[in-house]
User: Fold this.
Amino acid sequence: MPASRLTLPPEQLQSLLSTLLERTCEPAHPGSLPLSVAGECCGWVFPKACDALSALSGIEILPDSVHIGRHYTPGPALDALLASVAQTLRSAGCAPGWRDELLDLWTDSSTTPTRIGCIERGVMRPLGLLTQAVHLNAWSASGNLWVARRALTKATDPGMWDTLVGGLIGSQEPPELALERETDEEAGLSASEIAERTPLRSITRMLRRIPEGYQVEEVLTCECILPAHAIPANRDGEVMEIQQLPPAKVLEMLQAGAFTIEASIVITEDLLRRSLSTPGI
Assistant:
């Protein structure tokens, strides 16, 4: 589908996007140590997490690094050790986002990360491990953007505005399937209603200090124009409000900091592409 040209000033959007990207290019917290798992570099261990893991079998904490299962190979034994690591961190109060949900553990490479195991979602940040998130910018035929406001019960960024759909990819879950799952849960839309979306593409890798550790996240995004009959409605209780807003209002809210940092990057990047009439949606 051809791009929908916007009248928003591209210089303003580019400046905003550059500022947002600068905010997500931080080093790990002082005192954090580089982490290797099965001999592969994987993340950054938060100081409190280092203390919690110090007595656990299979863990080596050196002055300049932390090693989990140094002589292990990917497989059930390593996953069992990673499960023990997760439970230990949970018991020590280092896993505030515990979800009973597994995510893949990837080697720390900006080009070709390799999966070496899986671990509980709630310990990804304390260990500074790479996560992958999918987002959908959904537009109306009239040129408005559908956006969602996070529930006040959310552990992170409660009450802030977000993309209509956004969430982490589960363990061994194809990105496209993760997007369809999140779209169903967060917006009540079927796979057929977003079938005309653009392909998922990576737009940035966020590096950000957060209270419980270090966020290392690859951000994947796509866009679609929803059919007129498709009205988003949240199903999982994690959204308190969904609206469709004109681009100028969205930009005003972005500049006021009303959106999460992830959503701000995803939406601003899309607005910039449209303002330049970049081929795509």
About this structure: The mean pLDDT is 93. The domain at 10-26+131-275 is CATH 3.90.79.10 (Nucleoside Triphosphate Pyrophosphohydrolase). Residues 39 and 184 are 38 Å apart (CA to CA). The first helix runs from residue 10 to 23.
